[in-house]
What we know:
The complex is a heterodimer. By secondary structure, chain A is α/β, with parallel strands linked by helices. Chain A has helices spanning 41-48, 74-78, 96-105, 111-124, 140-152, 170-185, 197-203, and strands at 2-12, 15-25, 30-34, 56-61, 64-65, 81-85, 158-162, 189-194, 206-211, 214-219. Chain A folds into 2 domains: 1-80 and 160-226, 3-Layer(aba) Sandwich (Rossmann fold), CATH 3.40.50; 93-155. Chain A has a 6-stranded mixed β-sheet with strand order 6-7-8-3-9-10, sandwiched between helices. In chain A, strands 2-1-4-5 form a 4-stranded antiparallel β-sheet, with helices on one face. In chain A, strand 9 and strand 10 (214-219) form a beta hairpin. Chain A is globular, with a radius of gyration of 17 Å. Chain B has 2 domains: 2-56 and 169-303, no CATH class; 68-152, Alpha-Beta Plaits (2-Layer Sandwich). Chain B is built from 11 helices and 4 strands, in the order ααβαβααβαβααααα.
Amino acid sequence: MIKLKNISKFYQPNVVAVDDISFHIKPGEFVSLVGQSGTGKTTLVKLLIGEERATRGELFVGGWNITKISQSDIPYLRRQIGVIFQDFKLLPKKTLLENVAFALQVCGKPMAKIKKIAPQVMKIVGLENKMNRYPHEVSGGEKQRTAIARSLVYQPKILLADEPTGNLDSINAQEIIDLLLKINSFGTTVVLVTHNRDIVNKLHRRVLTLHEGRLVSDQAVGKYII
Amino acid sequence: MAFLLSLGRIIKFSFQDIIRNIWLSLITVMILILTLLSVNLLLAVRAISGAAVGTVKEKVDINLYLRTTAERDSIMALKARISSLSDVKEVRYVSQDEALSVFKRDHVNDPQIIEALRELDKNPLTPSLVIKPTNTDDFDNLINELNKIDDPIIESRNFEDNKLMLNKINAITQRISDVGFAVSLTFMFITLLVIYNTVRVAIYTHRNEIAIMRLVGASNWFIRGPFLVSSVIYSLVSMLVVIFAFFLFLNLLQPYLETFFTGYSFNIIAYFGGNFWAIFGLELLAASIVNMLASLVAAGKYSHV
């Protein structure tokens, strides 16, 4: 599903973001990508969604060779990868339902389909009663659920979660992790990028550990080791 | 079908964006209105100065003084000969009597001259041919042609005064034209910068929205589309307001111009009305293109994948 072969990313000749990283994530896996701030986790996410280009190596995501992908293909790649971020990235002037529908509108889905899919995913994330509220009217956890709902509308094979619990209290954080596990149970590959030790240790799933831009550990049932 | 659906959504998003960010939209339109109004004011100043120079040039003519003994038939023959020259627009015969009455009329407030005329007891003025050139810029050619005519009824052909005056007028005209051109160029450059910057600021405020559109897999054209449509809408609305306000202003200005150009038919409303599409159509086109280019550059910057 995701395959990295000796991937390196240098921002300037001497600034190394990630250095010679190789790993393979199989379909349906739940993998935590951990490491301290500045170790290259977010750079790796940007490489996976085609926002950045690798300086060296090869990167495959769901059949796409990201290192050779054309600019015009990137929007299609992004419709196959769900991404959520710490800051939710919701449109403040749209309701939660409109935010979810927006993702379908921009890729040209017919209105009838949007009216069917958007409320369905809102129900999956447990927000069917708050669909018509605006982002500023709901909690952080509910905003993150909306972001997850939006990422699910394309039924992606991969869900990248970049520090999804970073802005949440422990109860909301756990709810989001439970939701990610639920999505994973449907067959979606989930990559959780985090530096939250407690969450990683409770998951008992595969853990990839980055340190100073390099992959220092890959444990099948791992713990946060740094 | 999918294309039409996307186009419909792009237009819908554009209108939604204009309404939801109404203050930003109003400010953008206001800046466009002010710049377009300034451009049209500059055009009006150029048209008025051009007309003023034109009326001065219209007054320029050459007098060919004839002998008082000249027969009318000989004068008419000379008039016909001069009229046939390509550089001559019009030739008018002024008889001795007409010259005297014009002279008296021009000096009606100068009793000494009128008294002197009365004492002379005869008409001291000569008949003349008043020649209007076709092109005041090519005065030399006409003078050369007139100098070639050798007719005994011609008493005097001193054109130096006329030439000097015309050269002065042409120099002023050229100066006005050069300054006008330089001001126009500078202004056009400032206008382009203002429009470009206004659109960039408007799009900068949408950078988060653009990032989200990118994130959810919107194509580059889907991201840029609403901004392009908004650019055209802003340009169109601004142009309509400018046309309305500017013609209102011209209607107020016209009575003053009529007083200034007494005896000459210069109508600023007719000037702008007659060149409506050439002026406002081009301005709309230029404003839309600049707006759209600025949108493409600015949105491209934030939608860069």
